[in-house]
Amino acid sequence: MALASGISRNFDTAKSKSQLQVVWEQFRKHQLAVFGGLVLALLYVGAIFAPFISPYSLSEYSTTDITKFQQPTRVYVIDPETGQFNLPFVYKSTRFTNPDTFEEGYKEDRSTKYPVKLFHNRPESPFQLFGFIPMTVHLFGVDAPGNIFILGTDGFGRDTFTRIWYGAQISLTIGIFSVALSTILGLFLGGLAGFFGGWIDNIIMRFVEILSAIPDLFLLLSLSALIPRNIDPVVSFYGIIFVLGIIGWGGLARVIRSQISALREVDFVQAATALGASEMRIIGKHMLPVTFSLLIVNLSLSIPGAILTESGLSFLGYGIREPYSSWGLMISVAQEGGFASIQYRPWVLIPGFFIVLAVLCWNFLGDGLRDAVDPRKRQ
């Protein structure tokens, strides 16, 4: 009796778990997926709080004397003169020209120490947190005329660290928004084609075939070229989202069509039809939810793909434009100096590391979610 009672309690406990709880338990077993999710959470939080995290504003020049391609600022905790521990501080870097080679460089002026301050108030660099909360306090910074560029500066003397986090707002969100648009189109049009068939199916699938027959890069460049060069960068941002969403729904629509076509004759669909449910209710409430695991796979692959596509467009000059920032646009600075960018100013390649990191973490997260929602993967 005791054994039977214990088995019954275990059965009741397992039975009481919701589908979401089961998926979460399986997801936590995938260590790479958990790691990817945590890193992505940090990146998106950093993008949201970019104006606060960054010591400078987006387009703020380093000084009136532009410090072009200045190397990363060294933060000291040990005084190089006395060898004693100290609170973090930096020295101001000044530009000089080698009289023999005429090459420009930077050297530290050690006559004055500039302490690194947390929650540094800079009235000369105001911003609006979340777009509506006026603030002048940054996470860290130094008093003028000192400067701190922990990841160096670009060719216009702008802080690379600042532009990376502002660029994250574009590079990370454009993938989500564009994939959301393509997913809505793919679900709706694929569902209609699979459920109704006939001439509706023929029209939608022929249009998908026309899209797939055109090379993606050529189609992207053609559609992006339709966006005027002198248009407001914000409008350009939404234009890029629209372009990426429009060309990305065809593959999902095909898969959804095949899934819905197979589900039309399943018993629960026939029962819903016999009970008088409307066609749109059958598609939206009974058939599309069955494709949930498929959507997880599609999203996990499409979002990093959209990030890479936007980066490529911005790199080629067809994406986000100045004065806004994206990781692809920042990478385009690296090509200006050719091999010199790698040899003399490798910090301009740091945005590429963030692109790779975001794409890898999205793939890790997608693999974990796919395994968690797939019953055949559960143990």
Question: How would you characterize this protein structure?
Answer:
The strands form three sheets. A three-stranded antiparallel beta sheet has the order 1-2-3, with no helix packed on it. Strands 4-7 form a two-stranded antiparallel ribbon. Helix 5 (160-196) runs antiparallel to helix 6 and helix 6 (198-213) packs antiparallel against helix 9. The protein is elongated. It contains 15 helices and seven strands. The chain starts with a helix and ends in a 6-residue tail after the last helix. With 379 residues, it is mostly helical.
What share of residues is helical?
Answer: 55-70%
Radius of gyration: 27 Å
| Secondary-structure element series | HHHHEEEEEEEHHHHHHHHHHH
The whole-number mean of residue pLDDT values reads 79
Entry summary:
This protein is mostly helical and 379 residues long.
Task: Summarize the SSE layout with pairings.
Blueprint: H1 2-16, H2 19-28, H3 31-48, H4 50-53, E1 76-78, E2 85-97, E3 104-115, E4 117-121, E5 127-129, E6 133-135, E7 137-141, H5 160-196, H6 198-213, H7 216-225, H8 233-247, H9 250-263, H10 267-274, H11 279-287, H12 292-316, H13 327-336, H14 339-343, H15 350-373
Antiparallel strand pairs: 1-2, 2-3, 4-7, 5-6
Helix pairs in contact: 2-15, 3-5, 3-15, 5-6, 5-8, 5-9, 5-12, 6-9, 7-8, 10-11, 12-13, 12-15, 13-15
Highlighted features:
three-stranded antiparallel sheet, mainly alpha, 379 residues
